[in-house]
């Protein structure tokens, strides 16, 4: 009788953890990303407790018929695939857990059916995504900024060029020359200094790159 009472109390405690710290399950889908651990548990509530204990766990996939519990460290909670045997349960993160990346600022938000996160990240110009994890930029073909150089590096594509700019102190924009794989950093933007619009005469495949401050709804 004592062991039965202990089991009931433990189950109730695990259920409260799941209710307070996690969203309602999303049935018929499986979350993709980094899997921290895979194990078998007797219930989804026990799987939730294990996720709470494991550093870096942001969600878990649970398979009801055999108790498969996959603890996940997924940065993008929208990367899922259909799987009728699984359900996704996501941890309600708060600002205290520092979810915002790349100098984004955080404010606590109430969760809802349409917003499963318990926080909102306010991203700096050039960053988008729920955690400010996505680089966001635009380009103007055949244009560049003369002078005002802030650095140089050989890169493979415009995204690598703007990533280099993001991580370089003083960089405000960049000129990428596709034909040479060259990334020239600028200490100013096209709003501060006029663009030269016919740079392709000297640098075939050149494009002026700038950080885009407006995020799309999906970003």
UniProtKB/TrEMBL annotation:
Residues 17-95, 132-215 form the Apple domain. The keyword Repeat does not apply. PROSITE patterns: EGF_1, EGF_3, PAN. Pfam families: PAN_1. Keywords: Disulfide bond, EGF-like domain. It comes from the Eukaryota. It comes from Oedothorax gibbosus. Signal peptide: none annotated. This is Apple domain-containing protein. The keyword Disulfide bond applies. Residues 91-133 form the EGF-like domain.
